[in-house]
Design brief:
Keywords: Membrane, Transmembrane, Transmembrane helix. With 238 residues, this protein is mostly helical. The chain contains twelve helices and no strands. Helix content is 83%, strand content 0%.
Length: 238
Amino acid sequence: MTDVASLWSYLATSPLIWLTTTILAYLVADGVARQLGNPPWANPVLLSVLLIAPVLWLTQTDYTTYFEGAQFVHFLLGPATVALALPLWDNRDTIRTSVAPIVLALLTGSIVAAGSAIILARAFGLPMEVLLSLAPKSTTAPVALGISEAIGGIPALTAVLVIMTGIIGAVTVTPLMNLLRITDWRARGFAVGVAAHGIGTARAFQVNPLAGAYAGIAMALNALLTSLIVPLLVRWLV
């Protein structure tokens, strides 16, 4: 008990408190999701946000202070992005035999995801910085932040929008695909990988390994394509 109290006293005066809070929140959220049988609405990332937000509000902690403590998690996104090459390599034979449908689905999904965000943002009269921050929302966070900064968006806002996109995609993909009666695990996984990046991919692996593999392929390819098409779409549509 004394050791626990000493550890808490140390963490409470250190930025590590927010890294510890983030990890504990995710462990609790993941445990709850597993106990409930991993239903779509019990997404661990969503539950983690719901656990951490009240803590930040009660302690009057601003985003800068929280991020300073939890930035190690952000650092890990870099190696995770590099690891996207693994599913591409592991499934190279599948990709080689399905190049045409994969390219078509990737182009359609990537252009619709970024283009619809820009068009809707313009239609609702959102400020230019918000529009530019919204455009790369469907790709993985490290790539989206780089795109946002390059085209004049607000990287911090982009990070929030990327997480929201991933959570919404992960929560809705299973019931939506069931409603549309899409039973091909490859199609289901690829769709969620393009639309909802890593959070959607994690959900796909929970549902079916093949869907997860295709979601990983889609996420990696979409990260590359989005970095190429978003600057072009912004130039044409804004």
